[in-house]
Amino acid sequence: MARLVRSWILLLILQSFLVSIAFGSKEVEEFSEALLLKPLPDRKVLAHFHFENRAPPSNSHGRHHHLFPKAISQLVQKFRVKEMELSFTQGRWNHEHWGGFDPLSSMNAKPVGVELWAVFDVPLSQVDTSWKNLTHALSGLFCASINFLESSTSYAAPTWGFGTNSDKLRYGSLPREAVCTENLTPWLKLLPCRDKDGISALMNRPSVYRGFYHSQRLHLSTVESGQEGLGSGIVLEQTLTVVLQPDTTSVERNTQPSWSLNSLFGRKVVGRCVLAKSSNVYLQLEGLSGHELKNVDSEIEAHKLWKNADFELSLKPDRVLREISSFLFIFDIEKSSDSEPFDLGLTWKRPSKWLCQLAPLHASRFLMGSGNERGAIAILLKETESQEKLNLTNGRCTIKVNIFQIFPWYVKVYYHTLQIFVDQQKKTDSEVLKKINVSPSTDKVSSGMMEMMLELPCEVKSAAISIEYDKGFLHIDEYPPDANQGFDIPSALISFPDHHASLDFKEELGNSPLLSKFKEKSSVRSYTEVLLVPLTTPDFSMPYNVITITCTIFALYFGSLLNVIRRRIGEEERFLKSQAGKKKGGLKQLLSRFIAKIRGRPIEESSSSSELQSSVLSSKLIFKIILVAGAAAAWQYFSTDK
Amino acid sequence: MEEISDQLNPTSDTSGIMPEFDPKTMRSTKPGLKRLFITTSVLFSFLLGLPFLWKSVEIYRSPLPFHDIDSLSDQIESTPLRFHCHFHAVFVGFPSTDPDNLRSQIQDGINQLTHPSSQCGSCDFSLSVTIQNSDEQCSETLAYNSSTCSYRCGVIKRNVFGVGLDDSVDESLNDVFSSCSGHSGKMYSVVVVNKENANGEDEVKAVVGKRRHAWIVGSGLEERYGDMVARVSEIFVKVFMNSGREEDSIHGEFMPVGSDGRIVLSFSLLNSNPRDWVYDWDFQRIDETFLAPVTKALAPIANISVESQVLYHTPKSSFSSWDEKLQSYIFRTSDLPFFVNSNEWHLDTSAGASGRSKILQFVVYIPSGGECPLHLQLSNGKISKTNGFISPMWGGVIVWNPGNCDKDSERPIRNKISAQDLEQIVEVFLGQFRQLFGFKSEAIYTSGLGTYKILPSERGFTEWELDFLSRKHTCFNLHSCSTTLGSLSRLVQSLPRMIIKDEIGEQVKYSLKAAKLAQSNVSLGGYSSSASSSRDARSLAENAFFHPSIMSVSYFSYEHCFAVYSPFFLPVAGHIVIAALREWKRYKQEKAKYLKWLTRKKTA
Compositional bias (Polar residues) spans (chain B) (predicted)? Predict the structure, then answer.
């Protein structure tokens, strides 16, 4: 008996060991959801949804999946994508009021329309084909015209200006793409809970699209497993950033508007997505320096943090994290249920004002010049009230600025006209320009690209870069349907490689993908406005007009030439002479001449036979008319019968 | 100038000579031809230019072999494809009789059972019969096109049958006939064993094996020759030739193979409400252990790939009702069209599949807590045993109820479907998959003469079923190829302004070539080679028909052509034609005048 028991135990141990091998070593696909809420200084509220889906390294990618979307995995497998980011944005990020020096803005402030970049894991010669196939696949997947990025005139291969240094990187953007629900629905389809459950249930379409800014982003990267014979893992990060205006019911004008999730979105969270490993809601409050508390540990102090004279939260946070200039309240929505929905609210009691962190320089871009022939593009960098500027190189405080810009080929940029002004003073290239890389455009073949690195002194007030261009002519086939609207020049990317934005928490973070993302150092970047260049648009009926006019002239010339050739001058003169002999009443003669002209034969002598003649004439005329009508009918018949 | 002077002369000085000359109606000189010549030459040069203009606005059309296409479709219509099969009947333990007589009897029996107008993909058989008496001496008659592979007398021992399992009998029979492998066409054999020891039981057992063999075992069979002959011919025709299906139960058009010869099996596990419970499966293991042999076995017919996913929040689209008697929720078969919820089931067409692959969806539906257990009720009121259904050409659905329909406590955890349950599910899958191909999944085939036990294969399909499939598939492919090419040729002929690129012409050419090759392979008896070349023929034909350039149905239409060219040619042509007519008329007139003058001169 004892032996039996022992063997049983042995077996059990062995079994558990085997099970632990089978399941422990094999990682599983993981999904997590998070929502970050942040009141903005200009009485708006930012909501940032963050979903992360991880597929561990496996050989069965694209074939067997449990949580990870099959479509994305197949995309990665088929086109050998190493890293990719796709964003759909509507509205412009307000760098002055919504922040320019935090990870949130540098990662999620995107240019208007669609932006796509991808790094491939294929031989260099196949990168372009992979890119083209990828754009087509994505446009099918996301119901957008991403396939317009297929043509070589619409994308570029940045070398260092974009931030990722790889020669297998391709970048393209479509500023004019309209973003709406039809793009959000396929995006949501990639989430295991879609918008049925969990935090994503908040995405009420009317309230999301009523916002001032929304940007949905999909970022995927492959993680090499390092093991021989095992494929790579995939991390899929999906974010939706919305800036909303809470309904202002507060009487006082100065206080920030109070809000709750229900008032912002019209919905409440009734439970977490059961498939998510973690589902948290974060509330970030900036500029609470007045409440700098020494020890958060004590219960009363902590309580003071979320219920004080300035503001009050409707729920008790599970944790509070402190950052240099902000507090982060963490709520776990696990406890919420149908009967007790999670509805976080923030009530302001006193007027409060704060400033958000700004990028070292504020960038804007505009067009100069007038007319349809030439112009100039100017990028203006202005000083901000940013705190962090210092970057000492060779004992001098400098700010490094990277500018990455794509020009469509019909904007023919003259790179020698590049001028740089620092504090309204023209500087030579060697003074401020550290590095520049230019790839000129080829007509109808490829777009132009400019990458440059400036090194400006810290005390700079303003810096301007201008470059002149000629407007090209497009072939009549190349104009889009609404050619008179003008053509878009994609946003320029301004990045500060030496400035890194990250949230530096004093406490231990725990396992939260969103916070660990924020903790990573990311270089500060911002996109400029999209420019609208009016080009000369032709009259699109022009080819037909030209054809008709030239043909008519040719026909006239040809006809008259033929008439001249077969003219008999002597005969006509004799005829006129004989006519002159017979005097008639002026009017009658004119009439008879006119008739003669029409009939093309000499004037009849006898007036007696004119009656008969006219009847013959009328019958002939009728015959002619019938002939013409018959020809027309035949033409009609043959042309429609096909 | 000359003409004018010519005309001037008669009026000036002929009045004296010819008193009757009337300048209005007569002329003394021959009318000139110069202007007429100029105008007509211009007219003719225009007319000559017309063909060149026509040629210049012509669009490129690659010449298609219309005649060959027509002849191919005629050929396929008129003479159905017949494969060569070889049937071999072995009678063991029978007293020596004339094998030729027996052979003609079986032949008659087979001919009776086959339709006179045999459908496409049937067998063109040859038959050989061997009789082995109890002393293990043989008398045999071989088919006309006698094969090298013949049955070695005495190899089959009577006592093998009925002792061991059917599977081992099948294996031993395979060893006996293994020398026939590599034989052109396939050889099917039926062994009739007359057992000696008739210990009262009069039961006759008939088994069809996994390979290409069947056997009938019984005692006292020598008295029932006629019955045996009928049963042997029935096995040949109904089982081996028609694979046990009813005549035309499923047409060849329902062959669920994509036109590029690929099938994607997409398995989805649907958790209709993950708040109640969440189930996951280890599909990779299923794929490796159960599905890999099946996909390998079907490789000559289609290139099959397998993928799986788990989806959540996927309710079905219609409601079920609670049945008190059965203590379960009931979904009637009449409501099945409303089961699949295409709004919420994002089964996703696979991005890995190319455009024309066939995707078969297999769905395991786990009902939510509010409708558990869920059972499908047949129209006769019984509960479906498999709890699943198929939709031809789409796939199948299985409802799987979690063991006990108790909700998990508060927080649902991710359960795994147990291995036993998964195996059951896979069995139903395989049955559904076979059904999509038109096979039955019962282990017993019943006909008028008795029942036959059919041994199931672990690969899902037995060899004789695969043979049947490849025969049908070849036939279906060739048929579809010919109809596709036929429609292409009709389309091309009906649209004279359609651009046809060279690629299309090439594809049509190669498709015809592959179809010809398939036909010749069929007559040679090469099953897999004919199947693969027929697959090529079909996919090439489809490629030609769906070539992207075929959509560019020339927007440069006749109307456009007319609009561009008429502003020049219409006025100019008007001028020229009128001028030529005038000149011609004038020439006739003047000539008449001249003739008149001539006659006047003559009479004078």
Answer: 1-15
